[in-house]
């Protein structure tokens, strides 16, 4: 092997396809032009690969080794590292709908929307595992696309800034099976190579077919191969969705086979001849020679082309949230047939010039040192695999999460949440959890008391505290301390607004203040009773005459008058009712004083109440109020120039400010809520520390 010198480092790329393996070796010149030094293709001798997935690792490794040896002879040096790509057809796509309900009406912010999308992706992950009935296969989320959002079950274009009790999303998420990645790595390593970079075939094609300046647009790339047509959607600079339909070039070839009774290889030759000849000569299976025009062949396959392009158009619209894209680029050999691009444009409702076959024109910055190689759409993906090495994007990276090394697919927008999802960190333990809520009724009206909100999860990236949406990079050390659940709701009868005040009764001309009677599930309870979930609370606004006399240690007399009328023990005594009772003057004064002491709400005056219904004693309540909780501390911060004290918690996050600083979130005060800590943008889950300077206001 003759050693050769090259001006730059050589990059070796392999396009490991279902039918063949294409190897490309080249280098980048002047940061723009890519020079292809050598290229070699070898077909699989057996069905070692099916639909882009390796079934026989050894057989595929043998083909890879043969390609490697041929290329080594051409370039004059050993090849040890290789760039590869996973086929788009093995990606798994699932559509789901996810909901998020607020405890009460809330103004939706970016953090809420981010959480909703995460719930959707997590649900999609669970769905795809359930569909495949396997808990052992792991998947990498390589992209997701929101189809639509809902506000209180009504479709809406943008959620942020609206008040909502419930928000929902419909999204499509795409996953790459771990076993496919492992199979590719195993075959390459068995051929004495190491993987330098792994990407996805649709991304490799986009590197060539769609220039950077176009990727912010909503564009579809369709790679029409032999057995499948792979589809990817790009928007806002990244790929948002992937899809595949099982129709492509072979479907067109089969139509020619059926029409003209020829073998498959003959039909394939007739199909490609349509692109360069006016007349085609062929022999059918009976040995009869025929001569027809290319136009006749094209007319015979028109229905098949329309079937394929309609399926592709329908899939593009589905992946793009129910609407067509702005433009479509077609690559791959199957899309070269005359009429393919025009038919696809028709079904998408686009002008013909908006659907274009990308081949020679996108390979202008590619130089081939081998003279016989023609710039063709077939070469887009193999060269794109090489170019992806220079970007080092859309690759797999390793990060460390809570001591565990995990592999993530880097889609250029990885965040802490993606790492948490991949490691299986429960979504509900990322965000503060509220304690148990008490639902009860008071005099027939439904009410509830919410539990306290717990502490948010604490996230550190390389030792620095960050938010959940913070970007992550290769080899980051991530520590996630799960959020806590707040205390369960505790609410005593004495805290009810209806319980405040007393019932005033006029007894022998003097006003007696009587505490209100309370029933919990038809049983008498005191003001110290802790309300339980689903309790039916009834606060009585009356006493019976019998209860009044019992508290005053008086016997019933037939001469007793209520509002100047004779009364029985069962009669109800309401606010400001008068009672006349024959009693010596000195005895009445004594009973009056005694009754007032007994009827003090803070005393245990209702002797009919069972001891177990009394709840906490005064001493217990006092202890609960005065005994400090371990770790609880006060904190002082500056909010909009004003000193604010935060108390009763161990740690504080931004959302805690609203418990101590008067700010109306229930009414939209502008187009956007501005939240900063020490001049930096802050999220509701951002941690606070002593002395922080906070800005909180509505932006017009």
Please, could you describe this protein's structure?
Keywords: Cell cycle, Cell division. InterPro entries: ATPase_NBD, FtsA/MreB, SHS2_FtsA. This is Cell division protein FtsA. Residues 11-209 form the SHS2 domain. Pfam families: FtsA. With 700 residues, the protein is α+β, with helices and mostly antiparallel strands. Among the domains are: 1-79 and 359-393, ATPase, nucleotide binding domain (Nucleotidyltransferase, domain 5, 2-Layer Sandwich), CATH 3.30.420; 90-176, Dna Ligase, domain 1 (2-Layer Sandwich), CATH 3.30.1490; 493-615, no CATH class; 633-699, Beta-grasp domain (Ubiquitin-like (UB roll)), CATH 3.10.20. Helix content is 24%, strand content 33%. It contains 14 helices and 41 strands. A 5-stranded mixed beta sheet has the order 14-13-12-17-18, sandwiched between helices. β12 (219-224) and β13 (229-235) form a beta hairpin. α8 packs across α9. The protein starts with 10 loop residues before the first strand and ends with a strand. Residues 597-630 have low confidence and may be disordered.
Please work out how many helical segments DSSP would assign. 14
Measured between the Cα atoms of the first and last residue, the distance is 71 Å
Largest sheet: 5 strands, mixed
Could you report the average pLDDT, rounded to the nearest whole number? 82
Which shape, going by the Cα principal axes? elongated
Number of beta-strand segments: 41
SSE-based structural type: alpha+beta
Q: What is the subunit arrangement here?
A: single chain
Neighbour order of strands in the largest sheet: 14-13-12-17-18
In percent terms, what proportion of residues is strand? 25-35%
For the CA atoms, what is the radius of gyration?
38 Å
Helix content: 10-25%
Low-confidence stretches: 597-630
GO biological process, one term: cell division
Keywords: Cell cycle, Cell division
Protein name: Cell division protein FtsA
Pfam families: FtsA (PF14450)
């Amino acid at each position: 092997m003759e050693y050769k010198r090259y001006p730059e480092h050589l990059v070796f790329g392999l396009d490991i396809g279902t039918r063949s393996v294409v190897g490309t070796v080249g280098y980048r010149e002047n940061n723009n032009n890519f020079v292809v030094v050598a290229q070699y293709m070898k077909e699989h001798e057996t069905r070692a690969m099916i639909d882009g997935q390796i079934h026989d690792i050894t057989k595929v490794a043998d083909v890879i080794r043969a390609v490697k040896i041929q290329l080594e002879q051409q370039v004059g040096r050993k090849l040890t590292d290789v760039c590869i790509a996973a086929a788009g057809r093995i990606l798994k796509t699932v559509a789901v709908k996810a909901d998020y309900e607020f405890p009460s009406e809330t103004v939706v912010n970016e953090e809420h929307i981010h959480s909703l999308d995460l719930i959707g992706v997590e649900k999609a992950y669970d769905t795809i595992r359930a569909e495949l009935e396997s808990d052992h296969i792991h998947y990498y989320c390589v992209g997701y696309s929101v189809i639509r959002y809902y506000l209180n079950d009504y479709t809406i274009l943008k959620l942020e800034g609206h008040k909502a009790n419930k928000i929902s999303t419909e999204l499509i998420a795409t996953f790459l099976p771990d076993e496919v990645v492992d199979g590719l790595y195993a075959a390459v390593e068995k051929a004495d190579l190491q993987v330098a970079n792994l990407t996805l075939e649709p991304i490799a094609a986009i590197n060539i077919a769609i220039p950077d300046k176009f990727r912010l647009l909503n564009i579809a790339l369709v790679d029409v191969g032999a057995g499948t047509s792979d589809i990817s959607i790009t928007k806002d600079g990244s790929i948002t969705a992937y899809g595949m339909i099982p129709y492509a070039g072979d479907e067109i070839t089969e139509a020619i086979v059926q029409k003209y009774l020829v073998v498959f290889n003959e039909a394939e030759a007739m199909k490609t001849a349509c692109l360069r000849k006016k007349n085609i000569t062929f022999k059918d299976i009976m040995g009869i020679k025929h001569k027809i025009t290319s136009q006749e062949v094209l007319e015979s396959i028109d229905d098949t082309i329309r079937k394929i392009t309609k399926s592709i158009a329908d899939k593009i619209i589905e992946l793009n949230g129910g609407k067509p894209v702005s433009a479509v680029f077609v690559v791959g050999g199957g899309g070269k047939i005359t009429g393919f691009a025009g038919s696809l444009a028709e079904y998408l409702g686009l002008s013909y010039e908006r659907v274009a076959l990308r081949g020679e024109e996108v390979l202008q910055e590619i130089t081939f040192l081998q003279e016989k190689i023609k710039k063709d759409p077939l070469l887009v993906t193999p060269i794109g695999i090489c170019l992806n090495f220079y970007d080092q994007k859309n690759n797999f990276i390793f990060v460390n999460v809570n001591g565990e090394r995990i592999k993530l697919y880097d889609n250029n927008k990885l965040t802490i949440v993606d790492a948490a999802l991949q490691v299986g960190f429960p979504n509900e333990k990322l965000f503060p959890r509220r304690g148990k809520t008490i639902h009860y009724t008071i005099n027939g009206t439904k009410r509830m008391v919410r539990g306290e909100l717990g502490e948010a999860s604490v996230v550190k990236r390389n030792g620095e505290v960050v938010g959940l949406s913070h970007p992550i990079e290769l080899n980051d050390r991530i520590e996630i301390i799960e959020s806590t659940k707040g205390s369960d709701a505790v609410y005593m009868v004495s805290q009810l607004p209806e319980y405040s005040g007393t019932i005033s009764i006029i007894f022998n001309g003097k006003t007696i203040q009587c505490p209100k009677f309370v029933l919990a599930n038809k049983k008498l309870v005191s003001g110290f009773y802790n309300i339980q979930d689903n309790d039916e609370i009834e606060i009585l606004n009356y006493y019976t005459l019998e209860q009044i006399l019992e508290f005053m240690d008086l016997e019933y007399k037939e001469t007793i008058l209520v509002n100047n009328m004779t009364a029985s023990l069962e009669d109800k005594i309401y606010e400001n009712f008068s009672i006349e009772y024959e009693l010596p003057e000195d005895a009445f004064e004594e009973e009056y004083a005694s009754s007032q002491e007994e009827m003090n709400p803070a005393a245990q005056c209702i002797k009919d109440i069972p001891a177990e219904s009394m709840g906490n004693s005064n001493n217990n309540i006092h202890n609960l109020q005065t005994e400090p909780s371990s770790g609880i501390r006060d904190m002082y911060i500056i909010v909009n120039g004003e000193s604010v004290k935060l108390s009763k918690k161990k740690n504080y996050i931004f959302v805690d400010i609203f418990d101590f600083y008067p700010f109306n979130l229930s009414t939209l005060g502008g187009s956007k809520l501005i939240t900063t800590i020490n001049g930096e943008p802050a999220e509701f889950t951002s941690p606070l520390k002593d002395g922080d300077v906070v800005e909180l206001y509505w932006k017009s």
